């Protein structure tokens, strides 16, 4: 069965449209600021998608583009101004930044109350302590998708391939909060094949096409494909969809799986930030 992230995300956006209309009746206009550095093609596609859904939901968008030569001081000046601007509710610095910039340092310039990506130490620490916070959008979207399909998580063995701070690590914390048992695999892990076979829920966040094939997964596994890989202008996940689909119980497609859920969670975080700011 397909875990239809596109359909679920649409439902979430419908609810957000209503929320935003309600805010606007009270003269409150949710606004997101996106900062892009350089011209990474994938980043430009993600931002274009974010722009489209912001328009649909009624969230105002301010975009800032810098070329690779921008320095930390210039970014800090902008982020400080956006932090102080009461009309801006969410600030997002598009990942990845060019290598000459310290991404963690720059993420942490954002006021945690406007950190709608959940990448500041403040929000990461709260997530670690299972406190209310802004949760990174991809992991949040994956849990929401599983819950929409009423898939039980308690006691399940979840195997996550990838340990990035954007996907793997925060997702592991969220699954722990749901009382699942979590294994994280990375490029140095041993016995990967055996561990992958033992998964009730397998999440692949590697970024390599055809990384997961049919013989690697067990029957009845639930497969979440986070990977986004481009080949000849087409998008593929990490999983060999056609063959794996026939074997497992649930699977997310790429596109229209995790991607739309990620963006829906971003919008939800912006609306949440706006409501909190106007309490
Ligand atoms: P990342 O920072 O490059 O992390 C990739 C992870 O994969 C690393 O932890 C790496 O291990 C691990 N890895 C690489 N080769 C491996 C191997 N042979 N065996 C086991 N693990 C291996 O990437 P990311 O930012 O997490 O993103 C991962 C993928 O998800 C990318 O394709 C990205 O475009 C996509 N993505 C999609 C969404 C969405 O909304 N759908 C959102 C975010 C990211 P080491 O740590 O040992 O290097």
Structural account:
The protein is an alpha/beta fold and 279 residues long. The chain folds into 2 domains: 5-112, 3-Layer(aba) Sandwich (Rossmann fold); 137-258, Rossmann fold (3-Layer(aba) Sandwich), CATH 3.40.50.720. It is 43% helix and 16% strand. It has 10 helices and 10 strands. It has helices at residues 5-25, 41-57, 72-84, 103-107, 121-128, 137-148, 168-177, 192-197, 241-247, 258-277, and strands spanning 31-37, 60-66, 90-93, 157-161, 181-185, 201-204, 222-225, 229-231, 234-236, 250-251. The strands form 3 sheets. It has a 5-stranded parallel beta sheet, with helices on both faces. A 3-stranded parallel beta sheet has the order 2-1-3, with helices on both faces. Helix 1 packs parallel to helix 10, helix 6 (137-148) packs across helix 7 (168-177) and helix 6 (137-148) packs across helix 10. The longest helix is centred in the N-terminal third of the chain and has 21 residues, at 5-25. The mean pLDDT is 97. The protein binds NADP nicotinamide-adenine-dinucleotide phosphate.
Short descriptors:
Rossmann fold, single chain, globular, alpha/beta, 279 residues
Approximately what portion of the residues adopt beta-strand conformation? 15-25%
Strand order of the largest sheet: 5-4-6-7-10
**Ligand roster:** NADP nicotinamide-adenine-dinucleotide phosphate
Question: Can you give the mean pLDDT?
Answer: 97
CATH H-level superfamily of the largest domain: NAD(P)-binding Rossmann-like Domain
């Amino acid at each position: 069965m397909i875990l239809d992230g596109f359909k679920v995300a649409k439902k979430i956006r419908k609810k957000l449209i209503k929320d935003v209309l309600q805010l606007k009746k009270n003269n409150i206009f949710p606004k997101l600021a996106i900062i892009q550095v350089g011209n990474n093609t994938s980043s430009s596609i993600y931002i274009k998608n974010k722009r489209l859904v912001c328009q649909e939901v009624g969230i105002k968008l301010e975009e800032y583009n810098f070329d690779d030569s921008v320095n930390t001081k210039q970014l800090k000046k902008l982020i400080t101004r956006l932090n102080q601007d009461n009309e801006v509710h969410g600030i997002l610095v598009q990942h990845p930044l060019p290598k000459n910039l310290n991404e963690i340092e720059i993420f942490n310039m954002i006021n945690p109350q406007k950190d709608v990506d959940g990448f500041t130490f403040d929000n990461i620490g709260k997530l670690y302590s299972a406190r209310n916070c802004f949760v990174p959008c991809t992991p949040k979207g994956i849990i929401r998708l599983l819950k929409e399909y009423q898939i039980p998580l308690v006691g399940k063995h979840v195997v996550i391939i990838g340990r990035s701070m954007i996907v793997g690590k925060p997702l592991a914390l969220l699954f722990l909060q749901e009382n699942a048992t979590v294994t994280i695999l990375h490029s140095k892990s041993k016995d990967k094949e055996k561990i992958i076979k033992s998964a009730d829920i397998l999440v692949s966040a590697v970024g390599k096409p055809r990384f997961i094939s049919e013989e690697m997964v067990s029957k009845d596994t639930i497969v979440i494909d986070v990977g986004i890989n481009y080949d000849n202008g087409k998008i593929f996940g990490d999983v060999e969809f056609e063959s794996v689909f026939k074997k497992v119980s649930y699977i997310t497609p790429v596109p229209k799986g995790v991607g739309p859920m990620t963006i829906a969670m971003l919008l939800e975080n912006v609306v949440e930030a706006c409501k909190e700011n106007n309490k």
